[in-house]
Design a protein that fits this description.
Distance between the termini of chain A: 22 Å
Largest sheet of chain A: 5 strands, parallel
Largest sheet of chain B: 5 strands, parallel
Number of strands of chain B: 7
CATH superfamily of chain B: DsrEFH-like
Distance between the termini of chain B: 25 Å
Radius of gyration of chain A: 12 Å
CATH topology of chain A: Hypothetical Protein Ychn, Chain: A
CATH class of chain A: Alpha Beta
Strand order of the largest sheet of chain A: 4-3-2-1-5
Strand content of chain B: 15-25%
Helix content of chain A: 25-40%
Number of helices of chain A: 4
CATH topology of chain B: Hypothetical Protein Ychn, Chain: A
Number of strands of chain A: 5
Number of helices of chain B: 4
Number of domains of chain A: 1
Chains: A alpha/beta, B alpha/beta, C alpha/beta
CATH architecture of chain A: 3-Layer(aba) Sandwich
Largest interface: C-D, 28 and 28 residues
Oligomer: heterohexamer
Mean pLDDT of chain B: 96
């Protein structure tokens, strides 16, 4: 079994991403949406914590939310891929359960 | 309606009273109990504050719903997983929590503790083994 | 695949109702089913017909009502959460002795059991909140 | 001393409207003045007369209406925030072609200028929000 | 001039207290209200950060919010005092400006 | 109404779009500009994300209000203090921010930058020197 975790909060303000990273199991996927996409930024004070998990976890950022916030692929960590809403639906369908970190 | 039995996990990550999520989560659990599913509750992060004893809300004029956790056993909600690391980070120990129990009908109605202290790793595994996860 | 959608925050204040809307549209477009959308916590406020967002902004109530009509989606507002927050239909208003109601077309008020039922019957439950 | 009070979150969902209420009562009791309470963001939802909290809970709308009546406090709801969220008075409902309104007694709807004016005229501006 | 800062968020979930502590000036007062009172707990992972500021800042916790959450004076850091709503009003009156960290 | 001139500080600590606070803060600033007070804006913590360039909200269906910051100069809102440490913690530099300017009527309408980068210590001092602080 594998879970899809969604994180919609900025990791600089709220501890949701941190808690999610500490609870997700190997092979799970974390989708960063809304203000959660700031967790994908490279060169930030929390980048290393996220980077360390790439590989054992799949980390994906929602493009429409990145664009809204002026963040393009050049600004995010290597190994984080992006998707759109169709991809979000596909991710939800192919994982066994979805857990939102609010 | 409930031929199918699914594993439901209610994840509580927020402190009581400052926001309504803890109370409205409890309201879902109480209603959900009637559906005969396999129910577990997880208390992590600030959610562990929901279970502390000695809550007295008179002076803030808000209803004290902490006694309701003691009623969960009667609703056959008997698995309350509390994360050890979340307690420690907050300077809490199990002594700070209410004693919650249920009567085990498979064991001659023996009174047993509902709270199960688990590690963060065990909590992650529990989360990964559910059919439906509701987050509050 | 059958999705159930839980919306936990009010419109405009949080992006949750927007994200849920875009997810739902994408799910329908890619051949999935959406049985029900359940509105809980401040999410109940999505269902008021009295909101008047600025003309150059989206109207989330109307967007949800239209999507539900087109695809026969059941939009359910939690009665307990709705009463606290002042979201009523005609029957509730009458029963409670209130002189007005504010629910929008396509939404209905019901109990939390509908959320549990959605969890049981759908293949995946998606939560959008704060 | 003259206090202005800004409430930025809705009732029940966040404790802000409660804290503001207790602060206001204490200020009045200890000899201070409260000119105005301004409701912004989801705070506008404090002013709906359609809310029906459970019988064993406090009723924040009624508590504020009563306190305002007793002490002649001006309860002002921001019009822009209110329109987005579906909080209307009779005039606004008419002007916008809506068939109902939901504002409670003792509250009035006005512009953001009233918040700035409160900041200028009060000795201290207190914010309660999320 | 001295400011009264109010913090109403749990420091374990949200960064408001941290930001407030880093911006407050010597002689200012921080009043912990609502979920903010958890910042007064001793023995937590953030206690030391708070304790280090006691002295240059006055840190006060609102009793009604402590009681609601089952926290009595024995559980909070030495040097943090408590007050009630009347005291809150008095604090607001005696400081030059009030700033809420939401 | 405005004989009295007070120092107003608007403190922005939240990211745009995820919640409405940034937009509704801007609405207060625009209305407040008519009152001829001494207005400053502070951008700290996630508030610095409000000023990034290249925002394009089409795909989330939400109004892009970032161009409005460029209009603030015309409303004589000319002091936007942005905290350096908040930028650095988020991997941002001033290059990531919009260029915001105003025309200085006391200096032959010369075009000047509205954004002033300050340290956390300077931001604290600025906050301590206000009559009214509005937080969003």
């Amino acid at each position: 079994m594998a879970s899809l975790h969604t994180v919609n909060k900025s990791p600089f303000s709220i501890n949701s991403l941190k808690s999610c990273l500490e609870h997700a199991n190997d092979g799970d996927t974390i989708l960063l949406i809304e203000d959660g996409i700031y967790g994908a930024l490279k060169g930030s004070e929390i980048s290393q914590i996220v980077a360390d998990k790439i590989g054992s976890l799949s980390i994906i950022a929602l493009e429409p939310d990145m664009k809204a916030r002026g963040i393009d692929s050049s600004k995010i960590l290597t190994g984080i891929i992006t998707t759109n809403y169709d991809g979000f639906v596909e991710l939800a369908a192919k994982h066994d359960v979805c857990q939102a970190w609010l | 309606m409930s031929e199918q039995v699914k594993k439901f996990l209610y994840v509580n990550r927020k402190a009581p009273y400052g926001t309504i999520y803890a109370l409205e989560s409890l309201e879902v659990v109480l209603i959900g109990a009637a559906f005969d599913q396999d129910v577990s509750l997880a208390f992590i992060d600030d959610g562990v504050f929901q279970l502390t004893k000695g809550q007295d809300t008179k002076e803030i004029g808000v209803k004290n719903f902490s006694p309701t956790y003691r009623a969960l056993g009667d609703y056959e909600v008997t698995k309350l997983y509390v994360e050890k690391e979340s307690l420690i980070e907050r300077g809490l120990s199990t002594d700070d929590l209410q004693e919650l129990t249920y009567e085990d009908e498979d064991d001659d109605w023996a009174e047993k503790p509902s709270i199960r202290i688990v590690s963060r790793k065990e909590m992650g595994e529990l989360m990964g083994n559910q059919d439906v996860v509701l987050s509050f | 695949m059958k999705f159930g959608i839980l919306i936990s925050e009010g419109p405009y204040t949080h992006q949750a109702a927007d994200s849920a809307y875009h997810f739902t549209k994408a799910a329908l477009k890619t051949g999935h089913e959406i049985d029900r959308v359940f509105f809980y916590h401040d999410g109940v406020n999505v269902g008021t017909r009295l909101s008047i967002p600025p003309q150059d902004e989206r109207n989330l109530q109307k967007d949800w009502s239209a999507l539900a009509k087109k695809h026969e989606i059941d939009l359910v507002i939690c009665i307990a959460a709705a009463q606290r927050r002042g979201l009523l239909d005609e029957n509730e208003a009458k029963r409670q002795g209130k002189d007005a109601n504010n629910i929008a077309e396509g939404f209905r008020i019901s109990g939390l059991g509908q959320l549990i039922e959605m969890g049981i019957k759908s293949d995946r439950l998606m939560t959008f909140g704060d």
